[in-house]
Amino acid sequence: MKEEGKALVFFLIYVIGSVPLNFFVKDLLEYFSIGFSLFIRFIIMFLFTILFSKKIILNKNIAVLSFFVFLSTTLWLYSLIYLSPADSLVLSYSMPLIASLIGRRILNEKSGEIYGVLVAFLGYIAYSYNLMKGFTLYGTVLSFINAFAWAYYSVLYRKLRTFDVFVLNSSVFLICSLFSLAVLPLYQPIIKAGADDNVFADVIWFATIGGAIQFLSWNRVLSIWSASKATVLSYIVPILTFIIQCFSNKESPSLLQVIGIALITIGVILTFRNELKNHSNSSLSDESISL
């Protein structure tokens, strides 16, 4: 299979793991405390990746990366207490835009078109307008803080990209498991009454298909596609999740939500269009050389 075909397969695995994830997690949090959910996710992800890495590496950079992975995951889970699965996901996907700005400062990377970022953030303002009050306000704020933490650790991942993907991730997941274990006593009870067999499906998706497999498939996508191409296409995830939620709840989206998602999509394309164009020209050049 050609590299482009492999990337597409891994991308589809990422989408399949990501789209239903928030629905499973929202249900899981009805029965499991956030502390126990964190521990279950990270320990299973560690056990999965250590099978392939066979070793771990501990240093300051990996410890800092692990802290932000843990922080981002914690904020994501808390946001789902206050928001619907789609709302939490759409707002959290402001991450790539923030990462493009952080990457410029930390890694001296060229950031995307600034007017594209502005258009996208106008979209996020429109989408979140009706959420910025009452109970959902807390979830909205948590989602945007999560996006910053997610963006920061994504940039740190790029900084450590010379490490083997399994070794790096198994090391990160081990440290995150220890963080989770340390905070577990703060969450009582760890499992609430009324949990049924369906909770096991939630755990499996949360920790494996939507956890380790999703994480690793995204890393494989980035090893083949440019970050800009992968980023633009990844917005399929929040859009599909939003559509599924509308159908499953039998509710029509508000005008502000539709305008918001449209502006976000346009803004993302504008932000990364130069990188996409350069990647396309580079691919064409490589093809002509091979011919």
TrEMBL record:
- The molecule here is called EamA domain-containing protein
Stretches assigned to the EamA domain: 139-272
Where is it found, in Gene Ontology cellular component terms? Answer: membrane
InterPro entries for the chain: EamA_dom (IPR000620), EmrE-like (IPR037185)
Q: What keywords would UniProt list here?
A: Membrane, Transmembrane, Transmembrane helix
Cross-referenced PANTHER family: ACYL-MALONYL CONDENSING ENZYME-RELATED, EAMA DOMAIN-CONTAINING PROTEIN
Transmembrane stretches in the record are: 7-25, 31-52, 64-83, 135-153, 165-187, 199-218, 230-248, 254-272
One family name in Pfam for this protein: EamA
Q: Does the keyword NADP apply?
A: no
Asked whether the UniProt record includes Transport among its keywords, one would answer no
